[in-house]
Amino acid sequence: MGFNCGIVGLPNVGKSTLFNALTSTAAAEAANYPFCTIEPNVGRVALPDPRLVKLAEIGKSAKIIPTQLEFVDIAGLVRGASRGEGLGNQFLANIREVDAIVHVLRCFEDPDVTHVEGGVDPLRDAETIETELMLSDLDSLERRVAAAGKKAKGGDKEAKAQLEVMEPVLAALQAGRPARSVSFDSDGMTLLRTLGLLSSKPVLFVSNVDEASAASGNALSAKVAALATKEGAAHAVISAAIEAEVAGLGDEADKKDFLTSLGLEEAGLARVIRAGHQLLDLITFFTVGPKEARAWTLQKGKKAPQAAGVIHTDFERGFIRAETIAFADFIALGGEAGAKEAGKMRLEGKDYLVQDGDIFHFLFNV
Prior knowledge:
The protein is about 40% helix and about 20% strand.
């Protein structure tokens, strides 16, 4: 699938509990001491999408296959990680491999759960992690700018192009701002992504609150929400303790009753998964037939042949055209036959920009 979010945070903030609930497994040991997660755990979760159920009903599909998002549970960072403290080098390397960061912040008091910094302060914790990521980037970029500068003086055009991106990012890091705070055109953003900077990755702040605050958050999560707005990041409120209980209930009706009793319309995990999907700037397209109704993930801004390639590389290689129906038209007109009759099925070519919710049937020849 190729899209993943790394779950990061200080020790004992609820990362592994959240991961376990996300994947409904006990793959990550949730223990009350730092570094209980030494190797990153990886799990794939289905993206909740009610549209898929409606499509399957109309298409009389035998099977429903949702799209998935990968989450990586990365061991807790501590102050000094950029200098190797607390297995920092290993953990920072794991973060480098993910596409986006889900930053879990503790927003609950509990005397039975120790805090590595001695007290609960989510803004301080957010700053600690961000600082370690930026220090790591700063060290890396200073060396790379020096090397590229020498090549640029020798007339190396590629090095000059790199410097046009690296120098303003380096200035931002030196001023205490993350790499993602610097804006570039599309070519510049492409080059920025190749640098693999930790602080350039999009961030979702997750406020882990007590059970009583799961529905509306609390004063601490409100501070995190304000920070997210200020930094242009995403934010979600969950109670990892509740999510763990929900994950342990096998029956969907029991889960719904339990959530309703707490005043919750849906599990917080659904919000986290959707936010992670949005964070990666992904859209969903569908294929519908009697065998299955299936959701597929694609980067926003991609064209029809690339969507075909998500299903099979041969589809992209031999792409001819895409029979396309908008989701709203498919639902309103009762499926493919009704859409065809109403003239709502379009034949799109190689330059068609895929829209979220498109239903495709690809024609190809190899």
